[in-house]
Fold these 2 entries.
Entry 1:
Amino acid sequence: MIRSSKAPRSAWGTIVASMELPLPPESTPQAFAGATATRSLDRRLETALRLARPAATRAALVVLVSTIVALLLTAIHNDSFATNWIYSICVGFSCWFFIEVGRLTILRRVRRRAQQQRGVRSLLPSFRWFVPWVIISALLGYEVGIVFGNGLVGQKAPGLGLFATNPRALAVILIITIVSTLGVTFWWFACARLAESEARAESAQRVASETQLRLLEAQLEPHMLFNTLANLRVLIGLDPERAQAMLDRLIAFLRTTLHASRAGSQPLSEEFARVADYLALMAIRMGPRLTVQIDLPHELRDMQVPPLLLQPLIENSIKHGLEPKVEGGRIEVAARCDADCLVLTVRDSGVGLSQAGKTAGTRFGLDQVRARLSTLYADRAQVSLETALDADGGTVARIQLPLPTPVAA
Amino acid sequence: MKAPVALIAEDEPLLAANLQKELARAWPELVIGATVADGESAARQALALKPEMCFLDIRMPGWSGLEAAQAIAEDWPADTPFPLLVFVTAYDQYAVQAFDAQAVDYLVKPLDALRLAACVTRLRKRLADRTPQALQDSVDQLRALLGAHPAAPGGSALSGAGAPAPRLEVIQAGVGNTVHIVPIDEVLYFEAADKYVRVITAEREHLIRISLRELLPQLDAQQFWQVHRGLVVRARAIASAQRDDSGKVFLTLRGRSERLTASRLYAHLFKGM
């Protein structure tokens, strides 16, 4: 008797892993679509090679599991291992074939969906979705595998037709087939998930490091640093006490900036302290051209916020709003609670948005704040930049964050 | 010999006071004619005071130091020796490279007493050998600087070049509730007018609320020539150019009666082939 059965495979996961995981970090669905469209012959070859190895691994696993199943059946029925093994291998590879067809079909649909809508998180559908198809594949694979096996062995085993004569034997075989198929599929699937999440974590990590570096560069902009030092040098001669106070501000600013660029979050009071240091330095540099007003309500002091959010907006206000304005102006930084969100505003009475475009590099600060917020809060946080509507003119930058829980002081 | 006069343009008050003080120490007979805090005042005061030298901070509100220098060079009377220009910058790789390349004097902040002394020595020497050629030399230097500096006629001298702006196909000039669409091909010239730009076509003129500085990158430089800091003319519309003794060039246009003036900074565009 034959029967055999077997095995699984399913490489659903692995193939997904091998094809999709080397997603480059920036691989948004769009980038992915573009890459597919423009794939050259070279890339096809490369892809084929890249797929060959995991395919061989999968085939080996199919053989292994088929062999185990054949041993099991031989033990149960006490018949020829060689015959069982041949049937088992045939069924194993047939199951693999059907599962593969289903996987590729789903993959294509997922990909299409990914192209249509942004932000599909994973190209892997959940395993649950795939279970029915694995079971169907096991049944189909069993039937087809038996046909092939018959051809090889020269017998006429009945396949699913066994139901008519020996339903119990059929049930045993089918259960073994389905269980091993599901088991292997699940195993591969889990591996692919793992690899995918590792790749994601790695790319998130890389993006985070780059952001940190760029932030730091933006904070420690050489022009600001050297002008500040030039002022400091002058003050040392003129007014040593003020020079010391200025140096203290600079030290505090540098320290908190370096620290904040590494921290995940910090109390709002710290962000405001840094802002105050920065503005104090600017006030010394700009003299009467700059007036500053900072308003942090006491109850918001311990609110946790991502670091260096206000700083880029304030630098924009200074650089693009007030510095270009001959008579200077004022800058107001405030925090308040509004219903269920925290609102941070930076308002300047500078040249305003229509003029700000003149100075290059306007966007980086705002863009990176926006990008960081969308990573952290998806669409629950907002950044806006608009023209101030009152008589003083200028610009208002506003950040809205969902209310975090205040940390115990 | 009368004491040399200097103009200081620096927007940070402490730094301006310090430069003045250090100069007094390094060059006691130098007279500081005026200290201003923005580029436009610098140009205005320089043209009024006719100093022997100008110390120009690069980053200033309104016009940058380079723009101020351009305005001074364009409007400087031909019969007066052109001032020696010294640019002052905190940190500006592009500018410093360009200054080195053009042998332009510059100072780096924070000011270093030794460097300032060296600069003063050079300035004294230059002042002593000043020739009538000085204006032309300065114009050539400035032209090279403005060309070399990525943000030259721009505000922030430091941010490097941005993405090239898309070419403008039409000018949208709003008047009340109406917007006139003027194909760029019909424009004869653009002229800066305070915060606006006048757009002149064969039939009429429009005002648009944009600065020439913002407009310029959106124009095809082959078709439209900048001939003055405030004037951009369609090359094909120019009928003739006539140079006067001061280095200015007067342009006549095809089918128009007015004459336009190209500054000496752009006079090199009009040479016989």
Entry 2:
Amino acid sequence: MRLLPIAPLLVLILALLAGCATVTKVETGEQAVGARLVVRLEGPWNRIDAPGMGPAQVWTMEGLPVDQLLVYPGIKNGELVHASTGGSAKTFAFRSSMQPHEIVAMFEGMMTRDGSQFKLARLEPASFGGGKGFRFEYSVTRRSDSALLSGVAYGVVSEGELYAMLYHAPRLTFFPRHRGRVEQMARSAQLRAADAAALKASSGGGKRDCMRNPVTGMWTGC
Amino acid sequence: MRRSLVAMTLVAGIAFAPAFAQAQSMNLAPGFSNLPKDATVVLMPADIELFSLSAGGVPEPKADWTEAAARHFRQALLAHNQKLGLRTVEVSEDAADELAEVNTLHAAVAQAIAVHHFGPLKLPTKEGKLDWSLSDAVAPVKKATGARYALFSWVRDSYASAERKAAMIALAVLGVGVAGGQQVAYASLVDLETGRVVWFNRMARAGGDLREAQPAAETVGSLLYGFPVAK
Amino acid sequence: MPARFARPAPETDEGGLWAIMDREERRLRRSPFALRDAKLRAYVQEIACKLAGEHCPDVRVHLVRAPLFNASMAPNGMMQVWTGLMLRVDNEAQLAAVLGHEIGHFLQRHTLERLRDAKARSAFGQFIGLFGVVGALAQVGALAGMFAFGQEHEREADTIGTTLMRNAGYDPNEAWKVWANLVLEIRARPGGESASPLFATHPPAAERQEALIALARDAAAGGATNEAAWGEHVAPYRHEWLTEEVKRGVPEESLALLTRLKERSPKVAAYAWARGEVYRLRAGEDDLDRALEDYRAALAAGGEPPEAHRGIGLVHRTRRQAAEAKASFARYLEAAPQAPDFAMIKSYLEELSL
């Protein structure tokens, strides 16, 4: 029996069979993901939990076979960005020194372990979580069923940890339908200071906002 | 391997519910009750795969069975639809080539419905409704066929080989129950004007045999139980 | 040559297999993994046709986007050629060697015999695309062992392949080189030769190279390689295939391959650039120096991919050599205004200017 790199969907199916997968509603409004990341939702999402799904939270609107939003709440140096797999399958770990290019290559490697194909469409600097981050667009040809997916992602490295959101869905109908909310969620993302995680996030008073002016290209407040 | 895992999912989903069609509302999209009498339905090429289960339970694809099954299924489907008084058209192989991406899209949506609507992993945002739509991705199907609705079907069917049956008997003697073959399937009706999945049924059971004409007709009958045709 | 095969009755063993193949061929035709460039496909089809002689009408070539060395032929005439193979052969004759070998198996119905075994059927199915996913392409090697043709069949296919090559006007002395080159790559693997994905359906026996040399010796001298025509046809795809090779993330093997390609064709900037990428990404001791050397070789050869400038820029940026980095990034942006990462590289440039 060969070992397949376990994508969220397959883990889900196995967990489902074992009776230990759950779905939770993620409500409109502010949502904390992990200790520091906070996003604002303008409509509810569904979050799927199952043991062995990996370090990202997995959200969906239409169901995992259709769309997936992977939310990474602070990946530490050396940590894998996917569930650990037994055997000799290649693994992808984050290093704090990684540049945006390398982080994209890491996610690309993760998504192509099963023979799927990945193509980068765009990579640009972007503010994310109030820091100097990056945004990328991509397309994926899924090996298992030849589905053609489009994707958009945001990421930032803060205090040596990676915070990111990756969303992909079929390029027909579903990606266009939901991408707007994903972009809005990403733009709303904030990172609390690590020791303030227990405090309610304020609307920014006293916080310096590191932002990039899209017109002049200048970074301010960093 | 993915296909058999999907099959297992459908089975697992079914384990929480009876094997036949649910209460009508679960199979129907909100606001849809039945097809208009003169609506044309295009029968998309059925995705069928038959397996033989080895003694150890490993499924082995059997192309000659699948070939026979595809023929019987198609005949049975045409006959059943005629009985229901439906106007149907079929898709040529060449046209089907052009529609590959829509087919793939629908298959992914159908999996999602199987896992998240009929299975135990319901999505709160769907509020318990059959609420999935492909929107205008289905336009090429409408254009190519002139139909108003499309019927998709998918069947994965496994049969215990002789060795498997022997193993089952042997294990039963030892008090161990082991599954024989299983038939998992879905049928999905899509409105080609809106892209909405208006009716969906899925089935998982231990019986059924698509390799012969008569039992194939019975399978189709079960699969299309509750098909929303105007009375 | 045997007479053309009639389609077997569907209830027979063989008929059942044809049915599977036919269905898979339909799936392949519709798959986004198929490379549908009409010109390139027609070119490879023509070569296969020349080799197959009377059986030409029964052979249907499908090009598949996959960065591994593989070609296979199913009993129903469906032939697959993976882009990894097309990257690795140096000329038409070498491609003909592989295709001729596959046609040899086809003519002698070796595949059919092998497919009577369930495990072999499963393994072969995965190359053909039959039973769903070839998990990670890296697993292909493990399958090779399960499917492999016996030595007798391999010898037969080599003999027939050599004859077909010669009859079609190709130089049979190119055949052994294909395997020799592959062996080079395999030996570069840290784990060694076991279960290499590169051999897919044909794990090599040591004697095959010797046998192929002997067969070439016995065949009449002469024959074409058509290297120029080959180069012309694959040139538009080289960049894409090299990018896929680099993305495999197996630097030792890629270095063996790219070193061979670079040394063979020093004027092709893309090979030097690709090897530079492998060094830069591996980033081991001295690798960044090697990367710079290769990028510069690409520039010297002329017609370099814009990414060569980006590569130089990224190395200098890593070393905090701002002036050099800026200069190279600027050249990249100038050469590739439509690049997907234009905005990102532009921001690197701006940062370095602060």
